Amino acid sequence: MAEIVVAAFYKFTSLPDYARYQAPLHAAAHNAGIRGTILLAPEGVNGTIAGPHAGVGAVLEFLKSMPGCAELEWKESYAVENPFLRMKVRLKKEIVTMGVTGIEPEKSHEHYVEPQDWNKVISDPDTIVIDTRNDYEVSIGTFEGAINPETKSFRDFPVWFRKFREENQFKKVAMFCTGGIRCEKSTAFLRSEGIDEVVHLRGGILKYLETVPEEKSKWRGECFVFDDRVSVGHDLAPGSYDMCHACRQPITQDDKHSEHYAPGVSCPHCYDKYSEEKRRAFAERQKQIELAKARGETHLGAKSPSSGHPGESRGQEIKEPSS
Q1: Angle of helix 204-211 relative to helix 115-122, nearest 10 degrees?
Q2: Model confidence pLDDT, tens digit, residues 108-164
Q3: 97-to-23, 101, 125 alpha-carbon distances in Å
Q4: Are residues 215 and 119 in the same domain?
Q5: In this structure, are 255 and 212 located in the same domain?
Q6: What pTM does this model have?
Q7: Where are the beta strands (DSSP E) in 181-307?
Q8: Would residue 177 show up in a list of annotated catalytic residues for this protein?
Q9: pLDDT score for 322
Q10: For the chain, which terminus, N or C, has the lower number of CB atoms within 10 Å?
């Protein structure tokens, strides 16, 4: 069986006429035998695609022909079978949703810190380190001394930061996320708020775990990723977590022994959050997934292509089926 290439990418660039690329991009992907999800917005492009090497290359070349995308970078991983069921090209207001207008994330690359320099930056006592990810991601791992905003969604970050700034004094800020995309946006936001001394980790946690030797690492725990691995450790080795397919939160083996755990239906994090009607729907979906598996087929609800950023992980944090 031919190996499937999975490519995750994003690029902040001004695309005022982004909608006109939807149909030709979808056609290019379809003709190349590629599946996945690509988001187009006035601020750029974000996606994860998968298929044969030549087909992925053809789609990436199309993307690089778009305005401001000539230097598009992507992260590749490999799969035995395609993790996506279809090809989608979606039009969005933002390629990663923060809900703040008038910022310039395409300039955030001016404030990168390379992974090999990150330890020195976050060891500076005058620098506060902020984890821009959501609470369920932070719960399984983060950098030493990092502040957890305890957000449920990236949309919550601006409100959290403004309140934090009112209550705290600080000189410099260093931020990080899974694959880099949220940090590009959060860095632009902080600069729009008048914070000049702000940097972020280039390539995100994933690039750090891939680059920095474990014995020198200031990372503690595992990194949540938006694909079937659920979490990874140093050298991007698969982690120890599974996922609750009802609430999409990471779960441990102990969680799976809980009386509140039912595959595809509930876990200790969400058993009291859904109605009986919703649970019945989850149970029926799980039943159909198991029946399809027994027949050697793939049920539409069985896979949840995540973002991917390099996933994140694949790295890009698309939460559509995307990401």
Answers
A1: 100
A2: 667 899 999 999 999 999 999 999 999 999 999 999 999 999 999 999 999 999 999
A3: 23, 11, 31
A4: yes
A5: no
A6: 0.83
A7: 198-201, 219-221, 223-224, 231-232, 242-243, 250-251
A8: yes
A9: 30
A10: N
| Domain termination site, one of 31, 61, 95 | 95
- Do 119 and 144 fall within a single domain? yes
* Domain stop point among 77, 95, 113: 95
Q: At which residue do the structure tokens 């380190």 appear?
A: 129
Helix axis angle, 157-167 to 181-192, nearest 10°:
50
Q: How far is CA 19 from CA 16, 44, 227, 302, 317, in A?
A: 8, 11, 28, 30, 21
Of 113, 111, 144, the closest CA to residue 216 belongs to 144
Q: How many domains does the chain have?
A: 3
Say how far apart CA 299 and CA 295 lie, in whole Å: 10
DSSP annotation of 3: P
CATH at residue 190: 3.40.250.10
In a domain, 239, yes or no: no
**Angle between helix 53-64 and 22-31 (nearest 10):** 160
- Of these residues, 69, 177, 244, 270, which one is catalytic? 177
Structure confidence by residue, pLDDT tens digits, 280-319: 999 998 888 888 777 776 655 554 433 333 333 333 445 4
Give me the phi and psi of 132, to 5 degrees please: -85, 5
**Distance of alpha carbon 119 from alpha carbon 125, whole angstroms:** 12
Task: Name the nearest CA neighbour of 227 among 125, 310, 162.
Answer: 310
Residue 238: pLDDT over 90: no
10 Å CB burial of residue 164 (0-12, 13-18, 19+) is middle
List the domain range (segments joined by +) for residue 208. 105-221
DSSP 222-242: -EE-SSTT-EE-GGG-B-S-E
Distance of alpha carbon 157 from alpha carbon 276, whole angstroms: 32
Q: CB neighbours (10 Å) of residue 153?
A: 12
Considering the domain architecture, whether residues 198 and 129 belong to the same structural domain is answered as yes
